[in-house]
Amino acid sequence: MNPLADALVAPLAARNNPVLILEDGGEVTGQALFDLSGRIANVLTNEGLSPGDRVAMQAGKSLQALALYLACLRAGALFLPLNTAYTTAELDYFIGDAEPAVVVCDPKDEGALADVVKAHGAVLHTLDAMGAGSLADAAAAANPSFTDAERGPDDLAAILYTSGTTGRSKGAMLSHDNLLSNANALAKAWRFTANDTLLHALPIFHAHGLFVAVNVLLRVAGRMIFLPRFDADAVVANLPKATAMMGVPTFYTRLLSDVRFTKELTQHMRLFISGSAPLLAETHQAFEARTGHRILERYGMTETTMSTSNPYDGERRAGTVGFPLPGVEARVVDAETARPVPQSDPGILEVRGPNVFKGYWRMPDKTAEEFREDGFFITGDIARIDSDGYVTIVGRQKDLVISGGYNVYPKEVEAEIDAMDGVIESAVIGAPHPDLGEAVVAVIVGGTPAPSAEQVTRFLQERLAKFKCPKAVFFVDALPRNTMGKVQKKALRDRFVDTFR
Ligand code: MCA
Ligand code: AMP
Question: How far apart are the first and last CA of the chain?
Answer without folding.
Answer: 54
